[in-house]
Design brief:
Blueprint (H helix, E strand, L loop, with lengths): L14 H9 L5 H5 L5 E4 L14 E16 L4 E9 L2 E8 L4 H4 L5 E11 L2 E10 L5 H4 L3 E4 L8 H14 L9 H6 L5 H9 L4 H32 L10 H9 L6 H14 L6 E6 L5 H14 L3 E5 L3 H17 L6 E4 L5 H12 L5 E4 L13 E7 L6 H9 L5 E6 L5 H7 L4 E5 L10 E5 L4 H13 L3 E5 L14 H12 L5 E4 L5 H12 L5 E4 L12 E6 L7 H8 L10 E5 L5 H12 L3 H11 L25 H16 L3 H5 L12
Parallel strand pairs: 4-6, 8-13, 8-14, 9-11, 9-12, 10-11, 12-13, 15-20, 16-18, 16-19, 17-18, 19-20
Antiparallel strand pairs: 1-7, 2-3, 2-5, 3-4, 5-6
Helix pairs in contact: 7-8, 8-22, 9-11, 10-11, 19-21
The structure holds adenosine-5'-diphosphate and magnesium ion.
Length: 676
């Protein structure tokens, strides 16, 4: 077997299973090797009943106490048992497993592992795995079982078996990292790492294996950034763009004064665009710092120089929002610059019209989604591309534009609050401008961290805000299908909320399984205040600007990374109204409280990011999942900051030794798929 072998060659994989794997993007043995588990089940030491924590999966050993009862309807039978140990008695329930009454009739010691949830009289363990007699648990103790992302029809066991076959069948002895680097940073061998990431014997093996793979992922990323930078530096400026008086006039006429930071960044951009080399610049600024206007100045200035500028947004909703605010602004100040919109969901006729205007050069500013770089679009003289909260603008995109004409200037805008030390590494290919100041007229968002018992009060508060004309967001975490009742599911949640809020208040929900058109429709109506409460998973678009929204309530906030929570909070406090952010959490863990307290105390994204970094240690690996900021397969910019810095050092070393590893990187293009 080699990495390129089709998985069909594996035992137990026929045509049908091959198709299912295909849905997961797994076609070859190599794909399977890199199809890492997204989490692990850990079999930890049993804990006393008095120390059980709601919301967590925990293990208890005790004696069966009293009778095992079966109740409920034929469809949903509930089996109830009680387990007693020194510190208390625990109620345990199973769904549709009535046979347990017989199995457990002998009494005695039992070990149970399951999720703890709140019951009417104290906590309950729900649908646990049973180890009976109790000794059976010892075999599993401390082991980690891989949990893979699945698709209907494909079991975790099937994936796990296939992975095992591949690991046993492939020759994994060659090492992809240079030996010097591996020794210097005490990284595991490839062979060990691959085995250890899929089937770790314990946490230590897992951490060692993962570190090695994350390190390599970062290193490859950093090296390709450096390549990109080398390429960019060779690009001469084909479009010299001078600062125009009309742009300066717009600045003077705006209803607000630019902050000093905005002015400085605008100067940096203007300077760069009139210099000898083409611009590749990142504008980093916290949510609400006013990045859009800076981008608009650059676009307008480009248009006034006779060239075209494009603004690319990650979603249709955001693209439309930008288009409308730009056209409104130009109308208001009588600026005769033609702006057009181009998105995938426009009709063929509408698109045709836009294409024509772009090609003949009538359209000077083009706002859109990825449709901007598709085949049918031909630009007249595109000189600037701005990307907002967007996929990283990589080699591929630049090439796509280059094929449509010359080499445009690139300006990427991002609210991702990463500490400067990390930003320099992650955006190594770009020059960085920072807007480190918020407009002065902002009322800081008022925060609170509360337990679920506060939910009623919170609903009452939102009702009041809505009566005053405001709107609210409620965020629920994504729901994993395998997990039972423990997370507030968006649809159920909004149904219950509708009842609570009454007919006057319109509640709608938004989640990842909806089509783009459905999402756009909901966002559009929310923007028009036809919807007052939006219940959403985190698919809620970055960058969305509905200044009338004044409350955001985040359920199960312990499940999100701090940076993500900060992004979410940025949806409010964008207008003149006092805004509020309610972090709801049932977690009693000190660690969680500490993390949420950071958000409670400050609204400064950069400060939060650095605090986050300090708090996260390797111990957190199984807690909060990925920060969701950069789309690395394994690595997490925040959690693995140490590895990122080491990989950066290693890249320096490879360069100074002209190591062959760098040459091997030349066809590596993953960078184009990494999200800022
Ligand atoms: P972000 O940086 O998150 O993209 P936006 O550019 O959407 O922020 O700006 C948020 C809001 O602040 C917008 O409604 C914008 O008009 C306004 N704004 C931008 N700059 C200023 C300023 N200097 N003073 C006051 N309001 C501003
Ligand atoms: Mg924005």
């Amino acid at each position: 077997m080699v990495e390129e072998s089709r998985i069909r060659e594996l035992k137990g994989i026929g045509e049908k299973t091959e198709k299912l794997f295909g849905k997961l993007g797994v076609c070859t043995a190599g794909d399977l090797l890199r199809y890492y588990p997204h989490r692990y089940d850990i079999y930890e030491e049993p804990v006393p009943v008095s120390e059980l924590e709601e919301g967590r999966v925990m293990t208890v050993t005790g004696t069966l106490y009293g009778r095992v009862q079966v109740s409920g309807s034929q469809k949903r039978q509930i089996t109830t048992a009680y387990v007693k140990e020194l510190t208390g008695t625990l109620k345990v329930i199973w769904f549709n497993m009535p046979f347990l009454r017989n199995t457990l009739s002998g009494g005695g010691m039992i070990t149970l592992r399951g999720r703890i949830s709140a019951g009417r009289n104290g906590v309950v363990m729900e649908h646990p795995e049973v180890f009976y007699p109790s000794e059976k648990y010892e075999e599993k103790l401390h082991t980690l079982q891989p949990v893979y992302s699945l698709t209907a029809g494909l079991s975790n066991n099937a994936v796990s078996k296939a992975v095992r076959q591949v690991i046993d069948g492939l020759d994994l002895t060659r090492d992809t990292l240079p030996r010097e680097i591996r020794l210097k940073y005490e990284l595991a061998e490839y062979n060990y790492a691959v085995r250890g990431i899929h089937f770790p014997e314990d946490k230590e093996v897992f951490c060692h294996a993962r570190d090695r793979l994350v390190f390599e992922e970062f290193l490859r990323f950093i090296l390709s950034l450096r390549k990109l930078k080398e390429n960019n530096q060779k690009l001469a400026n084909e479009y010299i763009i001078e600062k125009k008086e009309e742009t300066e006039e717009l600045i003077r006429r705006l209803p607000f004064t630019l902050t000093d930071a905005q002015k400085r960044v605008w100067e940096e951009i203007a300077q760069n665009m009139s210099s000898d080399t083409v611009m590749s610049r990142l504008v980093q600024g916290d949510v609400g710092s006013g990045k859009t206007i800076v981008a608009v100045l650059a676009l307008l200035n480009t248009a006034l120089n006779g060239y075209q500028g494009a603004l690319m947004a990650p979603t249709e909703v955001l693209a439309r929002q930008h288009y409308e605010s730009i056209t409104r602004m130009f109308e208001k100040y009588d600026i005769p610059v033609k702006t057009v919109l181009l998105t995938g969901s426009m009709t063929t006729k509408e698109k045709r019209r836009a294409y024509d205007r772009i090609e003949c050069g009538l359209a000077k500013i083009i706002v859109g989604t990825h449709a901007l770089i598709q085949g049918q679009v031909f630009y007249d003289n595109l000189a600037l591309v701005v990307t907002d909260e967007q996929h990283r603008f990589g080699v591929k995109q630049r090439e796509a534009f280059a094929q449509k004409g010359g080499t445009p200037h690139v300006l990427a805008m991002s609210a991702t609050p990463i500490p400067r030390t990390l930003a320099i590494i992650l955006y190594g290919d770009l020059d960085i401008s920072v807007i480190d100041e918020l407009p002065a007229n902002r009322l800081p968002v008022k925060n609170c961290v509360v337990g679920t018992e506060y939910r009623k009060t919170a609903c009452h508060f939102m009702k009041q805000q809505i009566e005053e004309g405001r709107q609210c967001y409620i965020i629920c975490p994504m729901v994993e299908e395998s997990e039972h009742l423990e997370v507030e599911n968006v649809t159920d949640y909004s149904r219950a909320l509708k009842e609570e809020m009454g007919a006057q208040v319109r509640v709608e929900c938004l989640h990842g399984r909806m089509s783009q058109a459905e999402k756009d429709d909901i966002m559009e109506r929310f923007g028009q205040n036809e919807i007052q409460i939006l219940v959403s998973t985190t698919v809620i678009e970055v960058g969305i600007d509905v200044p009338n929204a004044s409350v955001i309530m985040i359920e199960n906030s312990e499940r999100f990374g701090l940076a993500q929570l900060h992004q979410l909070r940025g949806r409010v406090g964008r207008g003149k109204h006092q805004s509020y952010c309610i972090f709801m959490s049932s977690s009693k863990s000190k660690e969680t409280r500490k993390r949420l307290e950071i958000l409670n105390k400050t609204n400064d994204g950069f400060k939060i990011a650095s605090e986050d970094l300090k708090l996260r240690g390797p111990g957190d690996l199984f807690g909060i999942r990925q920060s969701g900021l950069l789309d690395f397969k394994l690595g997490d910019v925040f959690q693995d900051a140490r590895l990122l810095q080491q990989a950066n050092e290693a890249a320096d070393w490879l360069y100074s030794h002209e190591n062959e590893y760098i040459q091997k990187m030349s066809d590596y293009e993953r960078i184009s798929s990494v999200i800022i």
